[in-house]
Amino acid sequence: MRKSANPKTCAAAWMMALLLPSFAAHAQSAAHFSPAFRFTEQGGEQLFANVCQGCHMGDAGGAAGAGVYPSLAGNRNLEAGGYPVYVVVRGQRAMPPFGAMMSDDQVAAVVNYLRTHFGNEYKDAVTAEDVKVVRP
Known about the structure:
mainly alpha, two-stranded antiparallel sheet, 5 helices, 2 strands
C-alpha cells in the first residue's frame, strides 16, 4: 500500500516551480530582489531531505494523494544516470523542473545520492558535466 503524500509540502513544491519563473523575471528588473530562487543545500542527502522527500517520502517509497509520486527506492529507472538528471533538470509529467533552482553540482549530488541509497546500487556517478548536457 502506498503512503499518502503530504499535500501541503507537495503543493508548496508545485507553487515554487510554477510561480518562481515569473517572480524571477520580475526580480531581475527590480534591484531589491534576487534574480532567482536557488536551493542552498549542497549535499545529495540534504537536497533529498529538503526538496524531494516532501512528495517521494523520507524512505523514497513514493506516495499517492493529490497525485501519484513514484517510488525511488529500488527503482530501475535510475540505472542510466542521464534519465534522473533529465527529470530533475527539466521535469516530467507531475515532476516539476528544478534545474533553474539547482546548480549542476547540486543536481549531480542529489541524483548520485538517489542512485546509491534506498536499495539502489548504481555506482557510476553522474557529474556536473553530465548535467550541463541536458540543460535547455
